[in-house]
Amino acid sequence: MELGKVLNKEQEAKECLADFTAKIAEKKQALPDVIDSGKKIAIFEITGKELYLYGKSYGRGGAILYDGRASISLEALPEMLSDADYLMLGIRGEGADQGKDIESKSVWKNLPAVKAAKVYQYSIDDFYFQDPIALTYQLERISDFLISKK
């Protein structure tokens, strides 16, 4: 809505927001077994030196799913991710080697979502921002992933 005000396109902004709200409602109807069951989705990212859990404030699809961000250690993975029914995994370019190393460890392989093959590896470039175009794209990818893993 702020962009609509700045660009003097408030009506278009309202229509965009209404369209997005309708898309969310449509996706929720397609995923009642995920949404109504209380299943959890964790957004996990590997960078060159850090491991992060993401929420609403930092892109990565979190605006659609959650709120918050936390840096974690490898040892904390079981504690932080063992309740997740689904994992969304992002690996930044400089984190590729660390990502391969983590994915080879039993601490990763023993996570319930990993064992159940319910991990979606997202593109950092596609999931970085929270603008209307990015959020619409993320909504489609996340819902497609969840529908495919019912």
List keywords for this structure.
150 residues, alpha/beta, Rossmann fold, 5-stranded mixed β-sheet, 10 helices
Tell me the number of helical segments per DSSP (H or I, 4 or more residues long): 10
* CATH topology tier name of the largest domain: Rossmann fold
Name the helicity range. Answer: 40-55%
**Order of strands across the main sheet:** 3-2-1-4-5
Strand content: 15-25%
SSE series: HHHEEHEHEHHHEHH
CATH classification, class level of the largest domain = Alpha Beta
Largest sheet properties: 5 strands, mixed
Q: How many distinct domains?
A: 2
Number of strands: 5
Overall mean pLDDT: 83
Shape type: globular
The CATH superfamily name of the largest domain is: Nitrogenase molybdenum iron protein domain
Q: What does this protein structure show overall?
A:
Helix 2 packs parallel to helix 10 (132-148). A 5-stranded mixed β-sheet has the order 3-2-1-4-5. It folds into 2 domains: 1-30; 37-148, Rossmann fold. With 150 residues, it is of the alpha/beta class. It has helices at 2-6, 10-30, 32-35, 62-65, 77-81, 96-104, 106-109, 112-115, 124-127, 132-148; strands at 41-46, 51-54, 69-72, 86-91, 119-122.
Layout of strands and helices, then pairs:
Layout: H1 2-6, H2 10-30, H3 32-35, E1 41-46, E2 51-54, H4 62-65, E3 69-72, H5 77-81, E4 86-91, H6 96-104, H7 106-109, H8 112-115, E5 119-122, H9 124-127, H10 132-148
Q: What's a quick, concise take on this entry?
A:
The protein is of the alpha/beta class.
